[in-house]
Design a protein that fits this description.
Blueprint: E1 2-6, E2 15-19, E3 30-38, H1 41-48, E4 63-64, E5 68-76, E6 89-92, E7 95-96, H2 102-105, E8 116-117, E9 129-132, E10 137-139, H3 146-149, H4 153-166, E11 174-177, H5 183-194, E12 198-203, H6 206-213, E13 220-223, H7 230-236, E14 242-247, H8 254-259, E15 261-269, H9 282-286, E16 291-294, H10 300-312, E17 319-324, H11 328-336, E18 343-347
Parallel strand pairs: 11-12, 11-14, 12-13, 14-15, 15-16, 17-18
Antiparallel strand pairs: 1-2, 1-4, 3-5, 3-9, 3-18, 5-6, 6-10, 7-8
Helix pairs in contact: 4-5, 4-10
This protein binds zinc ion (ZN).
Residues 97-98, 101, 103-104, 112, 114 line the site of zinc ion.
Length: 352
């Protein structure tokens, strides 16, 4: 079957679409014909072979890419314990875990010592078919297309975990989303507005600032092109600052993110795309009762909660660009050059 394959670590030309061998599914597995896969900054890091503390990477090359996706059930193993049937549309959850440790039993699967992420540690979903245990699959809610559903599992689970599970966002609070144009940032702003928060967004791009200002779930936009932008946040909040900051950028933005916080405010982090060694003042943290909370990705419990939210509300992934499988490298380029607002999705159904 055809797949997006990483032959070696490197630039975008390290990606190839080619045939890979397909293992026979186990009798307790469900086979999904993949329709689409959302791209994430994670895909770029995997391709580049990023290494360092807390960074996961493929066990071996060649490697099949893709952490998140959705598709249609085409086979249900005779021993699969599931009510899924052939023809059902499903979202593939990005994380696999042991299923029986104390964290897994609570649904906090991303805390499992054996946690693995599709497309990162092990082969991902950017291929024609994937065989998985039914515990990795959830039906696509009514009203979501497969293209939209393909942008849910990593993106929306991460946003939900940051804001609700870890950040404990409350109605009426002010939340600031730093670098507010990627998929997780847009998801976070949608969820925050739905939860009754006042949503602040930062961007370095004047073009994105005007596009963000038009989104109904963005209430204030801050120009973060120069260091010191926290002064603007403080000035516009009457010196109070914001209650919660979601920062996935890291080193370049932490100082201002922390200074934007109210007394007792929380900063929740799910990534460090700009570097992981910030220059900060710890006095600016503890003297103002501020907290930094780590929220890498999220567990099955968070995934179920955010999919339920989408089933009950009008929250839908914002799809910036769809690229066919053969042009996956162009999708990587858009993410690397940060041209997008929302998601870049790979269509896996393009003709052979
Ligand atoms: Zn476990």
């Amino acid at each position: 079957m055809r797949a997006v394959v990483l032959e070696r670590y490197g630039d975008r030309d390290a990606l190839a679409v080619r045939d890979v061998a397909e293992a026979d599914p186990a009798p307790d597995e469900v086979v999904v014909r993949m329709a689409a896969s959302g791209l994430n900054r994670l895909d770029v890091f995997v391709r580049q072979g990023l290494a360092g503390p807390g960074v996961r990477s493929p066990r071996s090359l060649p490697h099949v890419m893709g952490a998140e996706g959705a598709g249609t059930v085409v086979e249900v193993g005779a021993q699969a314990r599931t009510d899924l049937a052939v023809g059902d549309e499903v979202i593939v959850f990005s994380g696999l875990s042991c299923g029986h440790c104390r964290f897994c039993r609570r649904g906090e699967t991303s805390r499992c010592a054996q946690y693995e992420i599709l497309g990162e540690d092990i082969w991902g979903v950017q291929r024609e078919r994937v065989a998985l245990a039914p515990t990795s699959l959830l039906r696509v809610p009514a009203g979501l297309s497969l293209l939209e559903a393909a942008a849910v599992p990593t993106t929306y689970t991460t946003a939900w975990t940051m804001l609700m599970t870890t950040g404990r966002l409350r109605v009426g609070e002010r939340i600031l989303v730093v670098g507010a144009s990627g998929g997780v940032a847009v998801a976070a702003m949608q969820i925050a507005a739905k939860a009754g928060a006042e949503v602040w967004a930062t961007t370095r791009s004047a073009d994105k600032a005007s596009r963000l200002a038009e989104l109904p779930y963005v209430h204030h936009v801050i120009d973060s092109s120069e260091p010191g932008w926290a002064d603007e946040v403080l000035a516009r909040t009457g010196g109070d600052g914001v209650d919660l900051v979601a920062d996935a950028i890291g080193a370049p933005t932490w100082r201002d993110s922390i200074r934007s916080l109210a007394t007792g405010g929380r900063m929740v982090i799910c990534g460090a795309t700009g570097g992981d060694q910030p220059d900060i003042s710890i006095r600016e943290l503890y003297q103002s009762h501020r907290q930094i909370l780590g929220a890498p990705f999220g567990g099955w419990n968070d995934f179920v909660d955010v999919v339920d939210l989408m089933a009950r509300t009008d929250i839908r992934p914002v799809i910036d660009t769809v690229v066919p499988m053969e042009q996956v490298a162009e999708g990587h380029r858009i993410i690397e050059e940060a041209e997008h607002i929302g998601k870049v999705v790979v269509d896996l159904t393009s003709p052979e």
